[in-house]
Amino acid sequence: MKKYPCNQADSLHITIDNLDTVKELVAETESNQVEFKETTGQLERAMETLCAFLNGTGGTILFGVTDKGKIIGQELSDKTKREIGEAIRRIEPFATIEVSYIAIPDTTKSIISIHAEEQRYMRPFSYRGRAYQRIESVTSVMTQEIYNQLLMQRSGKYAWESLTNPNLQITDLNEQAIMGAVRGGIRGGRLPEATIREELPTILEKFNLLHGGKLNNAAAVLFGKDFYNYPQCLLRLARFKGTTKDEFIDNQRINGNIYSLLDAAMAFFFKHLSLSGKIERLYREEELNIPYKALREGCINALCHRAYHRPGSSVGIAVYDDRVEIENSGTFPPDMTIEKLLSGHNSEPQNLIIANVLYKSEVLESWGRGINLMVSECRRVGIPDPEFHTDGSAVWVVFHYTRSTVGYNSTSTPQAPHKHPTSTPQVNAIVGAINDRLLSVKEIMEIMLLKDRKSFLYSYLYPAIESGFVALLYPKTPKHPKQKYHLTDKGKELLKQ
Residue 7 and residue 4: Cα distance in Å, rounded? Predict the structure, then answer.
């Protein structure tokens, strides 16, 4: 059985992953939420029905079942799986869909289940440019009147990121993160300098996050502090031993806003990927197994363009001995081929409000160039081009690497961030956070939205101190109870740069 990332069939409150569940569905006969098909030779008609389910309250299609409810199964091949994935991609807009393969004991056949949960704020859905509706057990083309009604509901103010949350208050947002985004936008020339002096509500209104005194979901995703109402603001991090998922070395789950999750992802890479270096003039330049910029761009794409409307979704990062995989819920834009993806294309953000704020705060460097940046960075250090995949329900990028060298004729060493004498992205980050202030560890971590003290010390603070960018207020007593940190002249010069 292969399962796509969505595991819960919410509209029917079941998980379709075993033969007993299939038998229960078959016993209910065909309805406005269940349809049987003998084989995927009827895939086109089945996808029209799936589209109709999406325009209703969700539903399930079972292949390998006769219209009388007899389980017969069908032979399963890689070609069949590819055809299903390609068919799912023809549904517009992106839909969360679960595909399961349930083997029939003592045979070579399987039942194929395709399930769509209710996704009312994304309706109307269409398949091959045409919308369908389900009435009882009959699928038909949707009337123009119903289509127009659903289309108006799906207009910008009804998109998930635009929906207001009456329980979300400005005090639930991280003010330091908001002002950090503003400072980034001013530095990059994407926001006027006067923005820094404006009141918080005014800034949120200009970011299109506050309307009529009410915050929308995008505000929580971007700047939230607590996420018990937003379980989808989740980052899964795993370091596996070897090249399979058989054994964990490290496994983490982190909830947070986009800025904190991006920081956590990059810290995880620096923790588990090796560094190798070359001498560039008078300085030793460090490079991860996979270029920092390529990994960062992959994470930004995953966090920015993913589908947020499903509470159980997340972004996943898996590090193996030979590759890194970054996965998110979502899909490529309709008719977007790999060739178009790699040759340059217009940006079509899944979440326009979120993407716009990330662009203004200079996290998104440009529109529609992220793929090319990842490819060029990998080529620069001599590792394979990243691979981009989608199965109609999730998107993932794969970076391949070797553990020996990264584009240089030198030996790679395990990461020991506190021993690096050069300016790394982590050092740059802590220098920018301290700025012209005298701060404690706790205060710096709060500004940087970091929670893991050990990771902060070894990935940020110690390298900055040993590189001569940051100094201690009480250098002779490093563990002084009132210890604070400030920039050296070297650190101030780096800050100017």
Answer: 7
pTM of the model: 0.57
> With contact defined as beta carbons under 8 Å apart, do 459 and 271 qualify?
yes
Q: Are 303 and 218 in contact (CB under 8 A)?
A: no
Q: How many Å separate Cα 11 from the centre of its chain? A: 24
- The answer to whether the beta carbons of residues 51 and 10 sit under 8 Å apart is no
> In 3D, which of 33, 38, 113, 108 has the Cα closest to residue 69?
38
| Nearest Cα to Cα of residue 289 among 270, 268, 266, 302 | 270
Could you say which DSSP state residue 376 is in? H
Alpha-carbon dihedral angle through residues 373, 377, 382, 383, given to the nearest 10 degrees: -70
Rg (CA), the chain: 25
Alpha carbon distance 392, 414 (integer Å): 37
Query: How many angstroms separate the CA atoms of 450 and 455, rounded?
Result: 9
Give residue-wise pLDDT tens across range 34-53: 999 999 999 999 999 999 99
- Token couple for 341: 């993806």
H-helix or E-strand spanning residue 157: none
- Asked if residue 461 lies in contact with residue 433, where contact means CB atoms within 8 angstroms, the answer is no
Place of tokens 């399961």: 100
d(CA 84, CA 295): 30
Domains of the chain: 19-154 (3.30.950.30), 176-414 (3.30.565.60), 417-496 (1.10.10)
Instruction: Supply the DSSP symbol for 335.
Output: T
| Separation of alpha carbons 93 and 412, rounded Å | 45
Q: What is the pLDDT of residues 176-200, one digit of tens each?
A: 899 999 998 998 889 999 999 999 9
Task: Assess contact for 332 and 89: CB atoms under 8 A.
Answer: yes
- Could you give the CA distance from residue 378 to residue 143 in angstroms, rounded to a whole number? 49
State how far the Cα of 109 lies from the Cα of 111, in Å rounded to an integer: 7
Could you list the beta-strand ranges (E) of 78-199. Answer: 91-92, 97-103, 109-116, 126-127, 132-135, 138-141
Cα–Cα distances (Å) from 171 to 75, 132, 305, in that order, read 56, 43, 26
